[in-house]
Every structure is written in structure tokens, then in C-alpha cells.
Amino acid sequence: AQSVTQLGSHVSVSEGALVLLRCNYSSSVPPYLFWYVQYPNQGLQLLLKYTSAATLVKGINGFEAEFKKSETSFHLTKPSAHMSDAAEYFCAVRSPPKTSYDKVIFGPGTSLSVIP
Amino acid sequence: EAQVTQNPRYLITVTGKKLTVTCSQNMNHEYMSWYRQDPGLGLRQIYYSMNVEVTDKGDVPEGYKVSRKEKRNFPLILESPSPNQTSLYFCASSLRIGGRASYNEQFFGPGTRLTVL
Description:
Oligomer: heterodimer
Number of strands of chain B: 11
Strand content of chain A: over 45%
Helix content of chain B: under 10%
């Protein structure tokens, strides 16, 4: 069965510092991986996705993530945090191809605070 | 404007009183899904639908029903709500290409905050 873990339910960084949010997955075959962001009182919106093309994926707002099969990881990074990055971040996996189902599994989320 | 809409946005009800949360999308997406969001648990999939009249259980389907009679609508039904169904609910949709939705992003509605007393 697929699963997703996100290390650190809450991360605080200073404005201008590196942002690193961790995501590890468990799957018998490499799944499709996504990072979503949720701003307060809003729905989720896509930051970036990995779909077996390039392992380094660039997304919106300066975020990027690297798929590492050997580590079953898909960590999210941003070189310089901005106050507007404060939000909840979710890693998600979708069923890989050639499966009979099409489920989505989300991690528990990481709340990012940016300190001025 | 491409969007997923949910109604109502807020609902307070009592145990056992049947309710329906509507979800509609205007993007002609085949795949639609319902999630509940609880603190510390992230989003958990309740049900999903890969097309009209095709639905399947997610990870937490107990106590919920869905139907997909039209492509654009995917209502969530709680026949007999209980307090443990108090949660924030999201509907989402995505394209399916080549019979798969896996590599496509989901578009989320604004959420429905449900309280069951």
C-alpha cells in the first residue's frame, strides 16, 4: 500500500533563509508525486509535480523538488523564504500506471512559518 | 473562470439528520474526488469517481455515499451524520488522459466546514 510521510509538522525559517520541507513515500513502484500549498481558509493549489520526466522539478513561486528513487524522497526546497510562503504544505502520491485504481494519498502536512 | 464550487461552505447540523454537500466543476473533468481534512492527518480520500456512473472507495468511505449521474456534479451524502464526521471537506477534479488521471493535478474547491453536534 502507498503511504506518505512528512517529517516535521511545523517548520520555522527566517525570511531569506533556505526552505526545506521533507517528503518520503512508500510505493511498490514509483508513483506520481505532487506538492500542494494551502493558504489559510483556502483550498489547495498545485506547487509542482513529478511524473517520471525530469527528476528535478521546478514549480511556482520559486519552489523546486527533486525526486530521489533510491531514497524514496521528494523534498521541497526554496532558496530564499518570503513572508508570503507561510502556509500549509502537503505532499501527495497518486496511483502509478497500470494499476486498477486511481487513489490519492496525502501526507499529514507541514506548516511553514516565516520569521521576519 | 475554471473552478470547482462547493455548497454549503459552512454547515452545522445534528446527529442523524441527513445532509448533502454539493460539488460542481466547469472544466469537463472526468475524475472527481472527495476528501476530509483533519488536523495532523492531512487530507484523506473518501470516494472518487473516474467518470459518470463510476465510483470507488478511498481510504475512509464509512458513513458516506456519493453518486455521479452527471459529469460536472459529484455530491457527497451523509445519510446519518455523527460527531466524528465533523471536519473540513474538499472536492477536487482532474483530467483523465489515456484512461489515467494519475499524472494530472487536481483542482480543489474552497472547502465545506461541517460540524455535527
